[in-house]
Design goal:
globular, Hexokinase, domain 1, six-stranded mixed sheet, Nucleotidyltransferase, domain 5
Length: 317
């Protein structure tokens, strides 16, 4: 099977074989998402990295896309200059079963694979049950949940929580920062995507220091004790806390993914994150006490999740 995890910066591809219940990663490749136009040109460029990346060579092709999978034929995505026509792609590869899933649907299913084997625990807890949530800041902000429905089966709950207005407090600093985002971007109501993401990290650093840098440049300049780190950790934790209170009311596991924290673990593995995550009413604290938090360190999690979907979910439909 061939799987694809499309991101705002990079698009990753991998070939898997299914051996019983195991998924064997045979080969992987990555290309710059916006370097090619249209999407079909990206697929043609991918074939140059090996014939095994030719869609024609596979019976299944799963695309994890950075946005909702709607009934519309043409899918468009924030931060990406091309679109995908479902019908055109299926006409181009008539002998391949093509599936479209949200990128955090893939990331959620990836939590059931070896991609979490080396996850870094940041908050330990006694879980009341095995439900799973995942939150990840990258080019944008993604969310997903798996609810356990039987001993071996999970139901996925898709989310576009990154589009909810970000819950700034009445704190003077936070209100000044919110006004700064509005002024600089023209966005009347900043959402999670604007605050907890790579561009959110860059915007926060600019507000605090006056330096306008790319997210990677900010990450290279800050450390665990930086003011930028402490405030970004607080905002990241707040989004995570609000999401798990919505989805893991009986307890479970929260995994953090996304390039921002994977490349810079100190942004979430700190006391500012832990303190903010555990704040709330007595009811909230009782729920949060049964939710563990771990940082995924394998950037291939979306690929493993897409392969899991192809092997176990699409095959059952």
């Amino acid at each position: 099977m061939l799987v694809c995890d499309i991101g705002g910066t990079n698009s990753r591809f991998a070939c898997f074989q299914q051996k019983g219940n195991n998924l064997l990663l045979e080969s992987a490749a990555a290309v710059r998402t916006n370097y090619f136009f249209p999407f079909e040109e990206l697929l043609n460029a991918l074939k140059e990295q090996g014939s095994h990346f030719d869609v024609h060579q596979h019976s299944k092709f799963v695309l994890a896309i950075p946005g909702p999978v709607t009934p519309a034929d043409v899918l468009s995505f924030p931060n990406i200059k091309w679109t995908i026509s479902k019908s055109s792609l299926k006409n181009l590869y008539p002998d391949t079963e093509i599936s479209f899933i949200n990128d955090f649907t893939a990331q959620a299913y990836g939590c059931l694979t070896e991609a979490t084997a080396n996850a870094l625990p940041t908050i330990s807890a006694d879980q009341a049950q095995d439900d799973i949530a995942i939150v990840g800041a990258g080019t944008g902000l993604g969310h997903g949940t798996l609810k356990k429905i039987s001993e071996s089966a999970y139901a996925h709950i898709p989310s576009e929580s990154g589009q909810i207005p970000f819950p700034f407090t009445a704190d003077e600093f936070e209100q000044q920062y919110r006004a700064f985002i509005v002024q600089k971007t023209g966005i009347a109501q900043p959402v999670g995507d604007d605050v907890v993401s790579g561009r959110g990290l860059a915007m926060l650093h600019q507000f605090l220091t006056g330096k306008k840098l790319e997210p990677s440049e900010v990450a290279a300049e800050i450390n665990a004790a930086s003011e930028t780190t402490l405030w970004f950790a607080k905002f990241y934790a707040r989004d995570c806390r609000n999401y798990v209170l919505t989805t893991l009311a009986a307890g479970g596991k929260l995994f953090i993914s996304g390039g921002v924290a994977m490349k810079n673990p100190f942004l979430v593995d700190n006391n500012s994150f832990r303190s903010e995550f555990l704040q709330g009413s007595e009811t909230a604290k009782n729920v949060l006490a049964h939710i563990s938090v771990s940082l995924i360190q394998d950037e291939r999690i979306g690929l493993f999740g897409a392969a899991y979907y192809a092997a176990h979910i699409a095959a059952a439909d």
